[in-house]
Amino acid sequence: MPSAAVSSGHELRRADGQPVRVLVVDDETAMTELLSMALRYEGWDVRTAGDGATAVRLARTLRPDAVVLDILLPDMDGLEVLHRLRAETPEIPVLFLTAKDTVQDRVTGLTAGGDDYVTKPFSLEELVARLRGLMRRTRAVARSEPTSLVVGDLILDEDSREVRRADEPIALTATEFELLRFLMRNPRRVLSKIQILDRVWKYDFGGQSNIVELYISHLRKKIDAGHKPMIHTMRGAGYVLRPAD
Length: 245
Hints:
- This protein folds into two domains: 12-143, 3-Layer(aba) Sandwich (Rossmann fold); 148-241, Arc Repressor Mutant, subunit A (Orthogonal Bundle).
- The protein contains eight helices and 13 strands.
- The chain has helices at 29-41, 52-62, 78-88, 103-111, 124-136, 174-185, 193-201, 210-223; strands at 12-14, 21-25, 45-49, 66-70, 94-98, 116-119, 141-143, 148-151, 154-157, 163-165, 168-170, 231-234, 238-241.
- A hairpin with a 5-residue loop joins strand 9 (154-157) and strand 10.
- The termini are far apart.
């Protein structure tokens, strides 16, 4: 089952000021109820459908800002639903949700026009973050949250992807940036290696926790060099980022 989600506290609304609208399509009632609860906790307007025909009909009236779409549906597959949705609303962002997790499955889903792909079981926190990312890239959604994360003298700009500590620029690779962003979104919170793998590497390095140790080491050399340390190892538990004393 998915792990529990925690609201980010960042408000995401439509350009007209109304809550964003998300359509969740899955034939498993327990799954749609779980997703609905998590997404409504974000303050979003959520509707659900248990089959493709209902999803297409609801989308016409709801005009959702994003769709979470299971590929395996009782009446038609998710790729056909996507085709019908895009025929009427070409720009609608779609996140595929499925138990099919081979590389070919992912390639098929994404090349068919899906914007993202999450496999079951999954992290609710990650799914919410990915939906945010999809909707932030659409014109229908207005973003009211700040673009910068600040912890002590460390600043990360999510739009420009610039990082500075004590006003000194820090050059990071794409993976180092994502790792730091996850740490900074959870200041003072101990994050396990599994949580970090799930959020930063998703399905690419499943089970290889040593990759986390390696990138934490890289990040420390860049973030903490010449400063009091901010990234700390909690033996047997994981890692935590907190302002330097």
